[in-house]
Amino acid sequence: MMIPRIPQKTVRRLIAAEGYLELGMPHQALRELDKVTDPGSLTASFSFLRGESLKRIGRFSEAIKPLQYAADLLPIPHSQLPWKSLGACYRESGQSDLAETAEQTADEIASEANIHLRFEPLGSQYNPVVHHEVHLTINFEPMPDEEQAQSDEDILLENEETEDFGIDPEIE
Q1: What is the CA radius of gyration of the chain?
Q2: What is the number of domains present in the chain?
Q3: d(Cα 107, Cα 112) in Å, to the nearest integer?
Q4: Does residue 127 lie within any of the structural domains?
Q5: Where is the composition biased (Acidic residues) (predicted)?
Q6: No. of H helices and E strands in the chain?
Q7: Least enclosed by CB within 10 Å: which of 31, 62, 97, 106?
Q8: Residue 121, Cα to own-chain centre: how many angstroms?
Q9: How far apart are CA 12 and CA 8, in angstroms?
Q10: CA distance linking residue 108 with residue 154, whole number of Å
Q11: How far is CA 39 from CA 8, 31, 73, in A?
């Protein structure tokens, strides 16, 4: 299977558009995105950047379609940001019910993936900051003698040398 090649100009334009958005320059980001003829396999990213640019210049109704497309294409947890932006656009367009649904979807994605976004001011813009926590608890308890004997046998079997026939027994 051959993966289609994405032109370097397209990649550079998407990176430039993202940079312009980070700098609070959505008009310039939109100009870069308008020059992209075919985003190929980067369509989801292109749609998100386009929707976000439109949202930031106040064209909320126009931003809905590309943000919805990005939210549908991007896998969890990456679809959380398009859903959040989509909620804001629906709210600004007077569609409160859809706004609540989109925001609830973003919150469900966050709790499912254990990712919490918060927004911190950067000049007059707000940038999302991802905060991810992992908690691990390990308890050690003594093993009964008969289980210990079985466990020792398992360790011996695991450490035996096996011939490599180019087959990975872990892959089904």
Answers
A1: 24
A2: 1
A3: 8
A4: no
A5: 143-172
A6: 7, 2
A7: 97
A8: 21
A9: 6
A10: 41
A11: 11, 15, 14
Q: What is the CATH number of the domain that holds 39?
A: 1.25.40.10
Query: What tens-digit pLDDT sequence spans the chain (172 residues)?
Result: 566 678 899 999 999 999 999 999 999 999 999 999 999 889 999 999 999 999 999 999 999 999 999 999 988 877 888 989 999 999 999 998 998 888 888 888 777 766 555 544 444 444 444 444 444 444 455 556 665 555 555 544 444 454 444 555 555 4
Domain housing 87:
6-117
User: Residue 138 domain-assigned?
Assistant: no
Look at residue 124 and tell me if it is in a domain.
no
CA dist 117 and 15 (Å) reads 22
E strands in the chain: 115-122, 125-132
Rounded to 10 degrees, what is the CA torsion of 113, 84, 73, 4? Answer: -100
